Amino acid sequence: MPQRRIVTGRSQEPRQRFAEELRQLRTARGDSLRQLGERMGWDWSLFGKMEKGDTLGGPEVVQALDQYYGTPGLLLALWELAAGDHTQFRERYRRYMALEAEAVSLWHFAVSVLPGLLQTPGYAREVLTAGGLKGPELEQQVKARMGRCELLDGEDAPPFRTILSEAALRTPMRDSTEWLKQLRHLLQMQERDNVNVHVLPNSAGMHALMGFDVWYLLLPHGHTVVYTENGYRGELIEETAPVVRLQKAYDSVRDLALSPAESRNYILRLLEEVPCGSST
User: What percentage of the chain exceeds 90 in pLDDT?
Assistant: First the structure.
């Protein structure tokens, strides 16, 4: 039997497919988002977020849309597939990676793990192993992460600034030799003109970016996007208002952090504390 061809040209990722169907149905009807909101009795911005994939909305909204468009059960079925899809954030992460490759400037805050752009292979392997990866998939992801580090190489490499919470630097690797390599790598990277490393000491207290890592990308056309992530999910943020709020939050945390020179001295002191031997 011949392999079935994909003939619609639409996304096969459930969350994105749901968003595409919503957008196509509305445009075919000739409604603007505001008109749709007025006719449905919901805030039009909700439908805009649903069509961009920022939210799925609730089942009651989707059922009402099915009735409005004359598609009984279709949108609700797509909604259920999107809501139950455990890979729903991979496509958004792939988009972030594409944008990262284009960025003319990057800045970052690390709450508990050192940023991928500054990791050694040993550190990356231990972090990914702790996340449940093993075997060929683990080695593939380590290789991919090391390839990502090449972004900071070369004469045209973008400037990169990171603020590392003290917790990230006070969580050592099991192998003290590998941990020494990682700390020395941080110092070597900090010597580059395009890399600035700050340490945020625990004594700084509560701050505006507690609980998640944040990446900021300045794109060639002057627009900034933000990617936030915790241990369970990531979110790409492109809307101006939340990006501006997160930029202000980053600035406030940077004001609390040590200077690059003070941070270098901090990492040097940390190196002296690492015990000798093959494991901590």
Answer: 59
In three-state form (DSSP H/G/I as H, E/B as E, the rest C), the secondary structure along 125-186 is HHHHHHCCCCHHHHHHHHHHHHHHHHHHCCCCCCCEEEEEEHHHHCCCCCCHHHHHHHHHHH
Spatial distance between the Cα atoms of 15 and 54, rounded to a whole number of angstroms: 9
pLDDT tens, position by position, 29-82:
999 999 999 999 988 988 998 888 777 788 888 999 999 999 998 999 998 888
Query: What pLDDT, on the 0 to 100 scale, is given for residue 229?
Result: 84
Strand 105-110 with 213-218, pairing: antiparallel
Residue appearing with tokens 């702790």: 130
Contact 199, 267 (CB under 8 A): yes
Q: Do 81 and 18 form a contact (C-beta atoms < 8 A)?
A: yes
As a dihedral over the C-alpha atoms of residue 173, residue 175, residue 176, residue 177, rounded to 10 degrees, the angle is -120
223 and 107 in contact (C-beta within 8 Å)?
no
Q: Rounded to whole angstroms, what are the CA distances from 256 to 122, 201, 208?
A: 30, 8, 11
Task: Give the angle 173-179-184 at the CA atoms, nearest 5°.
Answer: 155
Query: Residue 227: is it exposed, middle or buried by C-beta count within 10 angstroms (0-12/13-18/19+)?
Result: buried
**Whole-model pTM above 0.70?**
no
Instruction: Pull the structure tokens for residue 53.
Output: 């994939």
> Which residues on neighbouring strands pair with residue 216, listed in sequence order?
107, 226
Q: 13 versus 110: which is more confidently predicted?
A: 110
Strand order in the sheet with 105-110: 195-200, 160-165, 105-110, 213-218, 224-229, 234-237
Q: Are 137 and 81 in contact (CB under 8 A)?
A: no
For residue 138, give the nearest of 152, 118, 124 by alpha carbon.
124
